[in-house]
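Hey,
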Amino acid sequence: MRFSALSLFAVCSLFVNSFAAPTTVQQRDVAISQVEERSVATICTIVSGLLEEIKSCTHSINITISACEGIPITETVKTSVISSIQGSCHQMVSYISTACFSIGKLQFIELAEEDLKFLVSCCVEIILEIVCTLLHCVKVLGCTITELLGFLVPLLCNAFIALLAAIACLAGDFISCIKAALDCYLPEIVKCFGNFAELLKCL
């Protein structure tokens, strides 16, 4: 078989490039690794920050509701307290939505086991913080969750489901872990968010 000059040049170029390629690949791998490291740190910061924001809202709600314990709950008092609680829930929806948007801008990552456990733990704490606070309000005020929150019930529930979906799009194995972690808490969660279990199954 005879090679033309053009064929010989192509073969030589391929041979030379085969030595140069590893450097490019290594640089790309380092860049990807750096992006993943930043993404892991960022998503953990976003979710832990969200937990603190949610706690600030539930703290405000707890202060409001504690003033109602042990006193007669008139309609005037109930209306005022419910309005305050709904304001805090609006703020929680806003915080969760902002977190979802920030997470959505990150790169897909493979989480180390400790980071995965951290995110799952934070998300479980977020939903339980919300649910326990709201169920306590319902008990003190002697009302239903719908009377307490109205349209905010599905809004808050869907916001949290959206948070789980946003993390799942970014981090492998998250959904299976969060489902397992939330399983034992579902009876309490559905007292607050009736269709939560069905929505969780859809993820």
